[in-house]
Amino acid sequence: MRVKKEAEERRNEILDAADELFGKKGFDSTSTNDLLEKVGIARGTLYHHFKSKEDIMDALIERYNIRILTAAREIALDTSIPVIERLIRAVMALNLGGGSSSKEIMEHIHKPQNALMHQKIQKSIINGVTPILAGIIREGTGQGLFSTPYPYESMEMIVIYANTIFDGDMVPMTGEERTSRIGAFICNVERLLGAQRGSLMEVVRMFGGGDEEGHE
After folding, report:
1. Where are the CATH 1.10.357.10 domain residues in the chain?
2. Is 35 exposed, middle or buried (0-12, 13-18, 19+ CB in 10 A)?
3. Which of 66, 75, 91, 212 is nearest to 159 (CA)?
4. Which of 42, 75, 179, 192 can pair with 209 through a Cys bridge, CB separation 3.0 to 4.6 Å?
5. CB-hemisphere CA count at 13 Å for 50?
6. What are phi and psi of 207, to 5 degrees?
């Protein structure tokens, strides 16, 4: 006997199952039958909530977007954490993840046929991330850690650059080139925000590359 559940609960069950299956089998290798069996529902119930497997992927991406922006916002509001550390933690929280299918998600959105979806995610990141980080910069400016009359605009430039260059699809890079780009990026972020030299270089180590030489 099938158990009747509230629509939102059932929808989340389907997304949870898809997250697990996409991570284990891959998006292309996961069939709707796999999802039906995993959740224990009829095909009509699945299509009541989602039009297609691609629609499920879109919903997973939206759920991840909400999750990472919420996490970043909570970090930004935690004034018990020093400003520089809070900025780094907020940036770390902005990685698309939190589920076993994150690799499949990234591969999916970078396919040519999903260009519109990719664009939507980039827009969501720029519009959602910028005010969160700008708030931290304003607080840091008040503490003398930064010196910029344009906290929002500066963070908007930084987010757009990072979201483009480090996207993984827009600019092909070797490991060495990526390390060099990260070092240059952090160096110029410090200059743009009027931060003390080297104060943000921990971000380089967070991304696993670069050294602290070459700061002019």
Report:
1. 60-206
2. buried
3. 91
4. 179
5. 24
6. -85, 0
Instruction: Indicate the average pLDDT of the chain.
Output: 82
67-71, 89-93, 121-125, 165-169: range with lowest mean pLDDT: 165-169
H or E element that contains 119: helix 115-142
Q: Is the pLDDT of residue 93 over 80?
A: no
Q: Are 56 and 50 in contact (CB under 8 A)?
A: yes
Please count the CA atoms within 13 angstroms of the CA of 8 that sit on its side-chain side: 1
Rounded mean pLDDT of 50-62?
Answer: 89
Per DSSP, the three-state class of 209 is: coil
Per-residue pLDDT band for 178 (boundaries 50, 70, 90) equals: confident
Name the architecture of domain 60-206: Orthogonal Bundle (1.10)
How far, in Å, CA of 150 to CA of 134, rounded?
9
Q: How far is C-alpha 5 from the geometric centre of its chain's CA atoms? A: 31
What pLDDT is recorded for position 5?
64
In CATH terms, the fold of domain 1-50 is Arc Repressor Mutant, subunit A (1.10.10)
Residue 113 pLDDT level (bands cut at 50, 70, 90): low
Whole-angstrom Cα distance, residue 65 to residue 8?
A: 18
Q: Are 204 and 154 in contact (CB under 8 A)?
A: no
Q: DSSP readout, 45-89?
A: HHHHH-SSHHHHHHHHHHHHHHHHHHHHHHHHH-TTS-HHHHHHH
